[in-house]
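In this supplementary section we document a worked example of the pipeline. Step one takes a protein sequence of length 327 as its only input; no multiple sequence alignment statistics are reported here. Step two produces a three-dimensional model, which step three serialises into structure tokens for compact storage. The input and output of this example are shown verbatim.
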Amino acid sequence: MFKALLLTQQDKVTHAAVTELDEERLPEGDVTVRVQYSTLNYKDALAITGRAPVVRQFPMVPGIDFAGVVEASSAPDFKAGDAVLLNGWGVGETHWGGLAQRARVSAKWLQRLPEGMNARSAMTLGTAGYTAMLCVLRLEQLGLTPERGPVLVTGANGGVGSTAITLLARRGYEVVASTGRSDAHERLLALGAHRIVDRATLSEAGKPLQKEAWAGVVDSVGSHTLANACAAMKYGGVAAACGLAQGMDFPSSVAPFILRGVTLAGVDSVYAPMDVRRQAWEELARSLPTEIIDTMAQEVGLEDAAAHAEPLLAGRLPQGRVLVRID
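The serialised model returned by step three reads:
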């Protein structure tokens, strides 16, 4: 038997409860993992509250990522005792996820923990930290350097945003953080932001071409925010888009792209190839010492995870990240 946060649905209303389940109910897979830590991501919060159709079938165990130890494996690449982590691949949406003491998944979805990182640190960063690293690497692959100018980070108090600020600042970039929370300013400046801009200046319809301000952008918001960020890009600037907290729409024009040579790059964390994942996690392990990682999330137990879904969606969590202790 094992405990899991189980989502059920009745009359189109989603119910979440920690439940004891028989291991025979675990889905198919060639590796069984004893989960030590998971996280509460934005997508998990949507699933738990039923705010969006994240879950494709019920019952479902949410949790789009986890880290733990292999208990049993019929796959040649993994053996009992291996320390592993998982991000995405539809886990927590179409396949039971990480907010449980046990997970059974395909070996193709797993990767070993990077050298020098333990399960707790990996999930303190979680999918948000991994996505932030993907964004930073993508910007640099497209030619961004600190000498090019300021980098705007939207949704700065969220998990992706706050980690991106830390990563960029440690790489020598001038980081400008966009947030609507005045109580978060001190924290964001401590993470490495040079200054703060109010998200209200970006969240409404704006001109298709604006005064040049940003050499790069990490955006987890979408909609008008991303459109305005692109409109204010410097010549040859690059933007990495990875989220849609404000919306899926993109009310922009071609002006920044054909008149200033701006590049808009989409960043996907769910189905990224394994070599890209390994690069991101190895870079995270090199870039962020444990003493910094340990300050980046609020830790709760499995029993308390569901209660943090609403505050996360409302942006009321002080650190924007929730680490869930499972084992």
